[in-house]
């Protein structure tokens, strides 16, 4: 009686074997030697019968693995050539005769870009691109100018005629925009020289669900303008910070956020874009936590650490209401930065990133030596001491409850 035997065995399992347990929940890790892949893995124990592990994403089965009793090695799912398309909710289910376990994991863009080298704008540019051939295009460029209170007083300068030759194929793609190499043939003097290697970034307004052409152009304009406001405002902040940092001899070189310009392309279907200098060299993103490069090498760098110090300084200066985010670029030269502000905005300025970035920064930022040089206080709660030292009798015993770092207050 096979059936009865099976049932009998099941009873033995249920009564005598503990249910499977989780040793390690799902984690995303790099795949050694393959910078474009990532691996999701977890580990179980107390699996005393043969079992099946099933991986799904958003309900679709991706893999089913049969395993023998007692095999407690890590269970992995490798995602090769990982891209934005692989984002979503992953589930790993273990099923055996004496129990089941379900683990969920949300693969976010942050984690993905942290592990995998994505085809981001300007990522890993090699120097000296080939000569561009193509039609010259007449455009108008405009520079964002600031008055003394740079947050609330920003305006575009009058248009300057310029002429560009742009590559047909984009070389980088971010979440909402594409980057094209372009060569300045005339105009924009003295900011650029003739033949300057530049990058034209075009927002894809279609992905925002706009319908008619008028709406599309309006959205395209708004996005390009927002980009100019954000990056150039961040640039103003870093200028002020530079002056502060340079009062300390030990600080050394200071990172720069490069300026970007608004471009009107009357002859193009998507008429607005931004223009900036092309940064030559390896493009890296710096971790918000410790400034390490977000790639497989995870190099520690002076530029990355100084970026974090700059973020901390702005956070402190604005009492936790504004944060410059997405610190990235080539060495000390940064671009594609973002700004997060508190929900209501800060002094009339609203950023392009979620307010949650500010909380995340507060939770993750680890001060480095450059924070120390500038006298910035740690944002992390001090570890609790196990032994409470007795107060010295000579000192007054005042118990001041200290808040760590500037608190996140919503304005008024
Ligand atoms: Zn710090």
UniProtKB/TrEMBL annotation:
<dbReference type="Pfam" id="PF07679">
    <property type="entry name" value="I-set"/>
</dbReference>
<dbReference type="InterPro" id="IPR036179">
    <property type="entry name" value="Ig-like_dom_sf"/>
</dbReference>
<feature type="domain" description="Ig-like">
    <location>
        <begin position="20"/>
        <end position="94"/>
    </location>
</feature>
<keyword id="KW-0723">Serine/threonine-protein kinase</keyword>
<dbReference type="Pfam" id="PF02816">
    <property type="entry name" value="Alpha_kinase"/>
</dbReference>
<dbReference type="InterPro" id="IPR007110">
    <property type="entry name" value="Ig-like_dom"/>
</dbReference>
<dbReference type="InterPro" id="IPR004166">
    <property type="entry name" value="a-kinase_dom"/>
</dbReference>
<keyword id="KW-0393">Immunoglobulin domain</keyword>
<protein>
    <recommendedName>
        <fullName>non-specific serine/threonine protein kinase</fullName>
        <ecNumber>2.7.11.1</ecNumber>
    </recommendedName>
</protein>
<keyword id="KW-1015">Disulfide bond</keyword>
<dbReference type="GO" id="GO:0004674">
    <property type="term" value="F:protein serine/threonine kinase activity"/>
</dbReference>
<feature type="region of interest" description="Disordered">
    <location>
        <begin position="382"/>
        <end position="412"/>
    </location>
</feature>
<dbReference type="InterPro" id="IPR013783">
    <property type="entry name" value="Ig-like_fold"/>
</dbReference>
<feature type="domain" description="Alpha-type protein kinase">
    <location>
        <begin position="147"/>
        <end position="379"/>
    </location>
</feature>
<comment type="similarity">
    <text>Belongs to the protein kinase superfamily. Alpha-type protein kinase family. ALPK subfamily.</text>
</comment>
<keyword id="KW-0808">Transferase</keyword>
<dbReference type="InterPro" id="IPR013098">
    <property type="entry name" value="Ig_I-set"/>
</dbReference>
<dbReference type="InterPro" id="IPR011009">
    <property type="entry name" value="Kinase-like_dom_sf"/>
</dbReference>
<dbReference type="GO" id="GO:0005524">
    <property type="term" value="F:ATP binding"/>
</dbReference>
<keyword id="KW-0418">Kinase</keyword>
């Amino acid at each position: 009686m096979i059936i009865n035997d099976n049932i009998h065995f099941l009873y033995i399992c249920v009564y005598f074997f503990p249910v499977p347990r989780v040793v390690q929940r799902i984690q995303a890790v790099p795949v050694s030697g393959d910078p474009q892949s990532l691996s999701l893995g977890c580990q179980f124990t107390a699996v005393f019968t043969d079992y099946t592990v099933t991986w799904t994403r958003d309900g679709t089965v991706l893999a089913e693995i049969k395993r023998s009793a007692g095999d407690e090695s890590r269970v992995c799912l490798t995602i090769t050539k990982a891209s934005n398309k692989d984002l979503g909710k992953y589930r790993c289910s273990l099923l055996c005769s004496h129990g089941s376990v379900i683990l969920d994991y949300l693969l976010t863009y942050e984690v993905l870009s942290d592990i995998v080298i994505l085809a981001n704008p300007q990522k890993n540019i090699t120097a000296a691109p080939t000569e561009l051939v193509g039609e010259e295009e007449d455009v108008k460029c405009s520079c964002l100018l600031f008055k003394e209170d740079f947050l609330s007083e920003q305006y575009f300068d009058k248009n300057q005629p310029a002429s560009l030759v742009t590559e047909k194929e984009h070389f980088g793609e971010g979440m909402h925009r594409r980057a094209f190499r372009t060569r300045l043939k005339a105009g924009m003097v003295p900011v650029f020289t003739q033949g300057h290697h530049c990058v034209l970034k075009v927002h894809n307004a279609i992905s925002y669900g706009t319908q008619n052409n008028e709406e599309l152009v309006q959205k395209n304009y708004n996005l390009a303008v927002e980009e100019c406001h954000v990056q150039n405002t961040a640039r103003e902040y870093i200028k002020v910070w530079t002056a502060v940092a340079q009062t300390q001899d030990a600080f050394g070189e200071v990172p720069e956020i490069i300026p970007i310009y608004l471009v009107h392309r009357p002859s193009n279907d998507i008429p607005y874009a931004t223009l900036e200098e092309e940064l030559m060299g390896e493009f890296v993103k710096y971790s918000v936590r410790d400034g390490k490069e977000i790639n497989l090498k995870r190099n520690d760098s002076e530029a990355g650490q100084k970026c974090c110090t700059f973020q901390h300084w702005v956070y402190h200066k604005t009492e936790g209401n504004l944060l410059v985010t997405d610190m990235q670029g080539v060495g000390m030269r940064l671009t594609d930065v973002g700004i997060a502000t508190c929900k209501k905005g800060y002094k009339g300025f609203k950023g392009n990133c979620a307010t949650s970035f500010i909380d995340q920064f507060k939770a993750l930022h680890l001060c480095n030596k450059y924070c120390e040089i500038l006298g910035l206080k740690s944002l992390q709660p001090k570890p609790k001491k196990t032994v409470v030292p007795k107060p010295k009798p000579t000192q007054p015993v005042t118990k001041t409850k200290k808040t760590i770092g500037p608190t996140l207050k919503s304005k008024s």
